[in-house]
Specification:
Layout: H1 3-6, E1 9-13, H2 18-35, E2 46-50, H3 57-74, H4 76-82, H5 92-106, E3 107-110, E4 121-124, H6 130-143, E5 149-152, H7 159-165, E6 172-177, E7 186-190, H8 197-209, E8 213-217, H9 225-243, H10 249-263, H11 270-277, H12 279-289, H13 301-308, E9 326-329, E10 332-338, E11 343-346, H14 351-358, H15 368-371, H16 377-391, H17 394-415, H18 422-432
Parallel strand pairs: 1-2, 1-4, 2-3, 4-5, 5-6, 7-8
Antiparallel strand pairs: 6-7, 9-10, 10-11
Length: about 450
């Protein structure tokens, strides 16, 4: 079966979710672009949007329509070629409306998994629950005569286990989009020895057509992205607990969050990032990864304590941030939680004291938004870390230790065979996490 044939009947499982909606958009756009080619005029294309939450499907379709409009406006030159035989379409606006109609006509929003029984390609974006994935894969596989390929968006569950337990005979691989899939450029591609050349080549071509940067990860729980993030987050949590001897825990959380954002010149502090991903999600991923980890413990009682109090983080439907380690108003951090008590304390009550304890930022340190835009990012970051070594302040010392830990985590991913190279680790952190410099570098250890 050639590339286009695989696109004729696609199913996205978990289509109304945060990840599934973006995957649905990208797959529908790819299918539509092939459907509109003259040589495919006699082929039938369909994209099944499967989600158990029926009430979410109308909102999903509204989201897809709005995003298809944006996509169409960016590629009017291509669309004019695709619609060259449509003499009734004269203005760009006419072509854009026709494209929206064609893309939307492909999508079938449904709540029943039976829609996948005719599919040739299955994208899976349900929760990080191996048992659920296996059950869905097995049910589809046993009822689908087409021997479909399964592209799972898992960020932590080993692919080999899914393949074996669902009896897929190598017809599954990890195709891990980053959030949000429509914008994020990175895809982690996780293959297993049972995959044949055809499925791997298709995955690479699909990623290329979707304009994604592909990084290969070996099939070890957590892969590169979460392999680094979970350990980096655990280091930050434990660092806050260590600082608890110097200050109250909520102040220590604030201090570590500020160090990881301002001193390490990252887009978010580590506790803000945990909140963004979801306290519950980070906790769950650690629990998924931990059984596969020998000689280390990926678990945080602090996350357990927050989860037990019903603090989960994540975002509301409008994209605003829910409370987690931190409380937010208009996107700004206004309070910090003490996980031991569940109490939120206003930042204004202690920030000046903690900032003074940390010490000032050297003049060489740039805000992330300035550093990330510079063509000399590494050189500028190197100057900042050199300034930390010369400064001798508490915040600078903690930042240096944190950066060294982050580097060691990256190197261990290579030595453990998760990543093929340090460059791959850096690419994931630069592209998937928007860091301004890769964690595996020389300037943090000079």
């Amino acid at each position: 079966m050639d590339y286009t044939e695989k696109l004729t009947n696609i199913t996205v499982l978990g289509a109304a979710g945060k990840m599934g909606s973006g995957i649905l958009l990208l797959s529908a756009l790819e299918a539509a672009d092939h459907m509109l080619k003259p040589e495919n005029k006699d082929k039938n294309f369909v994209v099944n949007a499967v989600d158990v939450t029926s009430s979410a499907l109308p909102g999903l379709m509204a989201y897809i329509r709005a995003q298809v409009l944006k996509a169409a406006e960016k590629k009017t030159v291509l669309l004019r070629k695709l619609y060259a035989n449509r003499k009734d379409l004269i203005e760009n606006s006419d072509i854009i409306e026709a494209y929206i109609a064609d893309v939307m006509s492909l999508i079938r929003p449904v709540t029943r998994i039976e829609a996948a029984y005719d599919s040739t390609l299955i994208f899976e974006a349900v929760s990080e629950n191996a048992d659920l994935k296996i059950r869905l894969f097995r049910q589809i596989n046993e009822n689908n005569p087409n021997k479909p390929w399964f592209f799972t968006n898992t960020s932590s569950v080993p692919i080999g286990g899914l393949n074996k337990s669902a009896a897929l005979e190598g017809r599954v691989l990890g195709f891990h989009f980053y959030n949000p899939p429509a914008i994020q450029k990175l895809v982690e591609l996780i293959t297993i020895p049972e995959n044949n050349k055809e499925i791997t080549e298709f995955a690479l071509q699909l990623a290329k057509n979707m304009r994604k940067v592909v990084v290969h990860s070996n099939d070890i729980a957590g892969f590169i992205g979460n392999g680094h993030f979970m350990r980096d987050a655990l280091y930050g949590i434990n660092e806050a607990l260590r600082l608890k001897s110097e200050m109250p825990l909520h102040e220590a959380i604030y201090a570590v969050n500020r160090i990881t954002q301002d001193f390490l010149m990252r887009p978010m502090g580590i506790f803000q990032l945990i909140d963004y991903v979801g306290v519950d999600v980070v906790r769950f991923i650690m629990n998924v990864m931990n059984p596969y980890m020998s000689n280390e413990e990926l678990h945080s009682p602090m996350l357990d304590a927050l989860f037990a109090k019903g603090v989960k983080g994540g975002q509301y439907a409008d994209g605003s941030q829910k409370n987690g380690f931190l409380k937010y108003e208009m996107g700004k951090i206004v309070e910090v939680c003490n996980p031991e008590t569940g109490e939120y304390i206003p930042v204004a009550a202690f920030a000046a004291r903690v900032d003074a304890w940390l010490g000032e930022l050297p003049a060489e340190v740039l805000p992330w938004k300035n550093l990330v835009k510079s063509p000399e990012k590494d050189a500028l970051a190197a100057k900042a870390f050199e300034a930390y070594r010369n400064l001798g302040k508490r915040g600078a010392a903690i930042a240096l230790a944190y950066a060294r830990s982050s580097r060691e985590i990256g190197l261990k991913l290579v030595s453990d065979g998760v990543a093929r190279s340090a460059d791959d680790v850096n690419t994931v952190m630069l592209t998937g996490f928007f860091h301004a410099y890769g964690p595996v570098n020389d300037f943090v250890v000079k």
